[in-house]
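Write out the bound-state structure for manganese (II) ion.
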Amino acid sequence: MTETYDLHCHSTVSDGALLPTALVQRAHECGVTSLALTDHDTVAGLDEARAAATATGITLIPGIELSTSWQNKCFHIVGLGIDPDYPPLRDATHNLQIMRTERAERIADKLEKKRIPGALEAVKKAAGDGMITRSHFADFLLSQFHVSTQQEAFDRYLGAGKSAFVATTWTDMELAINWITQSGGVAVLAHPLRYKLTASWMKRLLAAFKEVGGQGIEVVTGRYSSDEIKTVAKYATLFDLAGSVGSDFHSPANQWLELGRLAPLPENITPVWELWE
Ligand code: AMP
Ligand code: MN
Ligand code: MN
Ligand code: MN
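---
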């Protein structure tokens, strides 16, 4: 049987719209045979996802998407095949939840100064026991008609340098990669073209990433064109990194992006799953 991989997606324990069970079922319906759940800074959805995967007959790869800092910039590192019970990782996610809640309070304060009250209550309610993200704020701003799209919420309020932006020092990239690799996982640089780096910065980043144990890079994401896939594949080859494929699915409301609907990895790229299979 040919496998269909999707190694990057989100559930309600971070900023996804579907409960882990519904997400796994949707992945199965979309033909995915190996799914990694990679919620932002949390492993809280993995037990439920594992049970749903067993019931559905698909393979669940336990994952996480860690927000990390390197050279004062934020980069997302996906951990694949991690042990969610590895104590340092458990402790880290606990601390990250506190940090995200404090950040949410500061974002809400800034919105209040812009005469937009009520954000903190709304995002806390929406996130429940899960991680509060800027997506929750974007949803709130949309629901209150302060903006007409999620993108506008980031462009006007939440994006870097905008009026409700709170600069955050995330987990140091090396530390995040250590948590992933020491818990048995593979560290993958997520959506490498989203950071808008020049080629020389990209090479600096990848050299540093590799130096501290990074092993993979997302060559195929839900949004990349064939030219973009070629660009990332060149970096993968240059730095001898395995290639990952992941939709970064968040919600069925986004009709342009579906679980498992991904271009194949270029043939000269080592698939990241060969590192654990
Ligand atoms: P956070 O980790 O709390 O900073 O939230 C980041 C999340 O916000 C990302 O994972 C995306 O889901 C979402 N996001 C970031 N930038 C944008 C954007 N420009 N438009 C829509 N969603 C975005
Ligand atoms: Mn997200
Ligand atoms: Mn990301
Ligand atoms: Mn993501």
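---
The beta strands are 5-6, 34-37, 59-70, 73-80, 171-172, 186-189, 216-221, 242-246.
The mean pLDDT is 97.
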